[in-house]
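User: Is it possible to get a 3D structure for a protein together with its bound compound? The compound here is flavin mononucleotide. I've pasted both below.
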Amino acid sequence: MSERWTQSEAVTRPRQRAPDLDLRLSNATPTDAERAAVDGLLGLPDSRWIGGDRDDAVDARTARTGAAARARRTELLPVLHAVQKAIGWVSWGALNYVSLRLTVPPAEAYGVASFYAMLSTEPQAGRVLHVCDDVACRIAGSEQIKEALRTQLGDHPSPDGACAFVGSPCLGLCERAPAVMVQRTGRQSDVVVAPASTDHVPGLLAMELSAPEYAEPVESIPQAAGPDLAKLRLLRRIGVTDPTSLDAYREAGGYTALVRAMDLGADAVRDEVTASKLMGRGGAAFPTGRKWSAVAEQPAQPHYLVCNADESEPGTFKDRVLMEGDPFALVEAMTVAAYATGCSYGYLYIRGEYPLATTRLDSAIHQVREAGLLGEDILGRGFTFDLELRRGAGAYICGEETALINSIEGFRGEPRNKPPFPVAVGLFGKPTVINNVETLLNVLDIVVGGGAAYAAIGTPDSTGMKLFCLCGYVAKPGVYEVPFGATLRELLDLAGGIAGSGRLQAIMLGGAAGTFVTEDALDTPLTFEGTRAISASLGSGVIFVLDDTVDLLDILTRIAAFFRDESCGQCVPCRVGTVRQEEALVRLGRPSTNGGRDVDQALLADLAAVMGNASICGLGHTAATALTSALKAGLLDSAFAGADAVGVGAGEPTRITGVEENR
Ligand SMILES: Cc1cc2nc3c(=O)[nH]c(=O)nc-3n(C[C@H](O)[C@H](O)[C@H](O)COP(=O)(O)O)c2cc1C
Ligand code: SF4
Ligand code: FES
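Assistant: Yes, that's possible. Here is the predicted structure of the complex:
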């Protein structure tokens, strides 16, 4: 039985008080295993104030709470991860103990635990199969996998409680769709099966997965096997240099950039980055040099560096491939960025669904620290910088920079109002640089080759090399690297052209928050200014290709469900707007009577305007973009005509599958 409080218990039973402390806990107590999971991360409690034995000599006179205990709140998400991993869920007893250890009110700890899809506040099966049913995977057969699992398991855990499945938003493995991530209680790490098929179902249920469970990242870079290999910059070491060895990285030129940066000095490094005209690759396209100078000039100390590796935009997987295949480069790039901006500590925030990248980065950070390239007096130049890896836990919104900050600090991943911007008031209230993985990796070449040389690549307003994630109906899905200015048509040619029927229906450009474009956009240069000119954006570099057999209404409905599900719920336009948008879209797919479709289209336009103008953050601002662009391009006209031809009374549309079960 669940240890969770029932309402009547809450009313009739006196609440537990923390031993000497003013936290109001419920009566649930942690099991030994839960306590061990918490202590394994936080260390044993050294005082009764935080859940240990009473030591009168100290505890009677000194309160070990206050600022020191509260400073540990940043460990809330890691410790919840530890409990989830060890036990398989976070019980009320475990939450009470975590609250006590970190001096966090239990209601707030519950608020955090219940925010993330990879944490469960209810008992769940020891093995949870997260079957991606997002855009790329649903056209590659994820619904068939779910159906096969449903036949075996029903909609509930298997009879022995060992295994269950849930539909999942994009797992960042779209080039190998369909993907399944297996969340495993009590095991060191989760595993991913991609591409998966119905043939894998018996193995997934029995957890007898045959190799390869996980292909090497080089297989995600089709250019590595062709003549373009020599032109690669950001991808050049992937599949060539052993990603598990610091020595191999250094032999391949690793750490030349850090030495050069220290020879130049911090001010000159920032000047080179400004001269390079590098723009952020996380989606907002903000000039990196300006961001770095804004932080460097802040008098408040310390400064923090955050690498945003949360990569959860459906259709995006470039950062995953970089981190799996070239992890030392990211650690070096973060060190250079910290040096240039006066940061003494950094966080690498990686999405929770990237087990291989996490393992590789964890190992890289340890090796680099052992070699004295992180820590005090790096390279004997008097510079001190260290960093830690933080795992997200399944929340798209945590990619938004201020939500990410809240997540690291141990709060719900809800975006903050801006201003103040993180460059002035960021992590722990201090000046903070936040950059995307791909942005940071560009810095290495800028430092070594100079900002002017970098700016000579691409176009005047979009400089350097750019990674694109090609998936869906292309012959060779994967990450492609080209200088800015290549057209959509050139990218499609690189990826072997349109697969499936060979006839293009539409391309989703930039991700689920991006735009649907058609054939007439194929000669658009893929630059910031080129895409702006056609009212689109590069977003996170997604090029998701749909042939003319794909049910676009189904894809758009999945996108609407994604935003409804991932909205943090903090502001009304987005919380309500994403729900109403999904409902209106479902109605649009039904036969229209009495002008109902016109009414719903007008409603959708109103919702888009309200969400775009009045939401707090970029999620709400862009939640309607893909749908609006598809309607404007007339891409749904034939679906509407088809629905009307079927006629009134034809029943519910069948395409809305799994909306309720999606996280
Ligand atoms: C809903 C939402 C999700 C985001 N997700 C990511 C992400 O996964 N990775 C990322 O680098 N930036 C993401 N961003 C953009 C970040 O807020 C921020 O602009 C970026 O990390 C800054 O780095 P850059 O200047 O190097 O691009 C997201 C923004 C929004 C509104
Ligand atoms: S726009 Fe949406 S995701 Fe952003 S703060 Fe508001 S409710 Fe949260
Ligand atoms: S991994 Fe399934 S859509 Fe990206």
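The pocket of FE2/S2 (inorganic) cluster (ligand 3) is lined by residues 132, 134-137, 170-174, 177, 179, 314 (CB under 6 Å). The chain is about 40% helix and 15% strand.
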